[in-house]
């Protein structure tokens, strides 16, 4: 919460009880409205193509921009939350989302949809979602892990409800009136934001990232430099501006971690590459089914099946991965889930029968549950928590780039070949190669670290590795080699 909001309350409010559970309910609804919404765009794919006489590639830019902005606007949202607080950011996001969809209902070209539904709605969803996740960290301490797991079920609920609602409204009213209604529905993000009232934190429960002394010191230093820079010293003033800019980049985009932390580097590259193929089934599954003779209502049901299974599998996956057996090994579970996602795509290549597509959705949803539940947990494993927010900023920016270009490039390939199978070939290629890259790279890094530690232990205690006929009983002062330490979520 912003310092201005916190200062407005004189007494501390209890956490993990009372109003906190209302905030959690609002967060569940919020994630269903924001993260769940882009999944229904495939229902309108064919109608938008016919309306604007657009190709597959041109039409797919619209959902790609929406999803890319939704993921990539994190640093901007962080600045907004720090300046004005979580409640303001959530409500502003709701207004932008509603405005974007209402404006979309009046669009006269596909390029106008890129601006309204793509950019404006995507940015609004980003503000609402990320600020809604942030506020849970203030309202929950003891039950924070449970709160985040329960909030993520909102995504699965959105995946289930949005496609069915979209198909019903599309059949009854057409896509323009449906987008108009969607604008009103997304305004409910403002209601969720109103519930997330500011909370005064106890003196000992400030987040680790809040360091007022350091912030005050940096501001004083910047002010001193600025005051010392007169018109006769433009070089000093430029140096000050560059320093402030560099500090902002370090805070919200962790380039230094990317260069120094091998685990973060591998994971970020792997997920960025993975996202080239991860979103393709969500965009093209419904058009693919309709193209192969499946009824439109049944085609929309396929996305809902994925969401419904996610409701139950995602929390179970989160609980399973939280077991101490998987401490430091979650990256291998994550790689396995990505690999299963890639392999499942070959089911669609074999047949486009509705029963076969249902089987595909079941397997894909199980694999997707693992990916969704583990993405941020693995990131917490490889990055120290005091730098997590800045590492997350760079992580989301890079993955948003591939989320943006993946569907349009695949759509261009489908336009050239007139073969929807290339959607699933492309998706499998990116997912399988990313899974193998991450799994094998982390395995190699782990082996290298073990060899380095063994070598260090051998140098520290060379007599231990020499042949001796003396007793092998351990001495009281002996030390075992250092164990591998992992940063895990609590």
Automatic annotation (TrEMBL):
Report what the protein is called.
Answer: MOT6 protein
Q: Which residue intervals define the domain Major facilitator superfamily (MFS) profile in the entry?
A: 20-451
Q: Where is the composition biased (Polar residues)?
A: 463-481
Please report the record's description of how this protein sits within the membrane: Multi-pass membrane protein
Which PANTHER family is this protein grouped with? MONOCARBOXYLATE TRANSPORTER, MONOCARBOXYLATE TRANSPORTER 6
Q: Which UniProt keywords apply?
A: Membrane, Transmembrane, Transmembrane helix
Principal place where this protein is found? Answer: membrane
Give the start-end ranges of region Disordered: 207-235, 462-490
Q: Which domain of life is it from?
A: Eukaryota
According to the UniProt entry, where is the signal peptide?
none
- Transmembrane ranges, per UniProt, are 21-45, 61-81, 88-106, 112-139, 146-165, 177-196, 266-287, 299-319, 331-351, 357-379, 391-410, 422-445
The protein's gene is named: Slc16a5
List GO molecular-function terms, semicolon-separated: monocarboxylic acid transmembrane transporter activity
- What PROSITE patterns does UniProt report for this protein, alphabetically? MFS
Mind telling me which InterPro entries this protein's record contains? Answer: MFS, MFS_dom, MFS_trans_sf, Proton-linked_MCT
Q: Which GO terms describe its cellular component?
A: basolateral plasma membrane
Q: Which Gene3D superfamilies match?
A: MFS general substrate transporter like domains
Organism this protein belongs to: Promerops cafer (Cape sugarbird)
């Amino acid at each position: 919460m912003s310092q201005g909001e916190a200062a407005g309350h004189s007494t501390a409010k209890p956490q993990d009880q009372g109003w906190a559970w209302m905030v959690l309910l609002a967060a569940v609804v919020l994630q269903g409205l924001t993260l769940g919404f882009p999944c229904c765009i495939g229902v309108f794919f064919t109608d938008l193509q016919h309306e604007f006489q657009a190709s597959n590639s041109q039409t797919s830019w619209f959902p790609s921009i929406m999803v890319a902005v939704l993921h990539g606007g994190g640093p901007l949202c962080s600045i907004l939350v720090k300046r004005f607080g979580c409640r303001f950011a959530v409500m502003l996001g709701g207004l932008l989302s509603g405005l974007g969809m209402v404006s979309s209902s009046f669009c006269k070209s596909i390029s106008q949809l890129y601006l309204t539904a793509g950019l404006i709605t995507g940015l609004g969803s980003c503000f609402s979602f990320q600020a809604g996740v942030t506020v849970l960290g203030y309202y929950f301490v003891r039950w924070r892990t449970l709160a985040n797991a329960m909030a993520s079920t909102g995504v699965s609920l959105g995946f289930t409800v949005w496609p069915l609602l979209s198909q019903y409204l599309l059949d009854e009213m057409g896509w323009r009136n449906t987008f108009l209604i969607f604008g009103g529905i997304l305004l409910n993000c403002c209601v969720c934001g109103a519930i997330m009232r500011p909370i005064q934190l106890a003196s000992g429960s400030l987040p680790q990232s809040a360091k007022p002394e350091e912030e005050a010191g940096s501001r004083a230093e910047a002010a001193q430099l600025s005051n010392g820079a007169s018109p006769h010293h433009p070089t000093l003033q430029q140096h000050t501006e560059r320093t402030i800019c560099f500090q902002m980049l370090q805070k919200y985009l962790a380039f230094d971690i990317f260069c120094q932390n091998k685990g973060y580097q591998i994971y970020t590259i792997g997920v960025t590459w993975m996202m080239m193929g991860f979103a393709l089934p969500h965009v093209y599954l419904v058009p693919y089914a309709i193209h192969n003779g499946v009824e439109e209502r049944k085609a929309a049901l396929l996305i809902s099946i994925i969401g419904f299974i996610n409701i139950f599998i995602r929390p179970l996956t989160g609980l399973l991965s939280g077991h101490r057996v998987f401490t430091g090994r979650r990256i291998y579970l994550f790689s396995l889930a990505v690999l299963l996602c890639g392999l499942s795509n070959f089911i669609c290549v074999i047949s486009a029968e509705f029963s076969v597509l249902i089987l595909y959705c079941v397997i894909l949803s199980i694999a997707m549950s693992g990916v969704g539940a583990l993405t941020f947990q693995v990131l917490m494993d490889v990055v120290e928590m005091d730098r997590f927010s800045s590492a997350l900023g760079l992580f989301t920016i890079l993955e948003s780039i591939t989320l943006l270009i993946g569907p349009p490039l695949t759509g261009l390939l489908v336009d050239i070949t007139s073969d929807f199978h290339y959607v699933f070939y492309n998706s499998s290629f990116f997912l399988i190669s990313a899974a193998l890259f991450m799994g094998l790279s982390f395995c190699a890094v782990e082996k290298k670290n073990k060899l380095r530690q063994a070598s260090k232990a051998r140098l520290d205690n060379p007599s231990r590795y020499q042949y001796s006929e003396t007793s092998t009983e351990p001495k009281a002062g002996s030390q075992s080699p250092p164990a591998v330490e992992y940063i895990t979520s609590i």
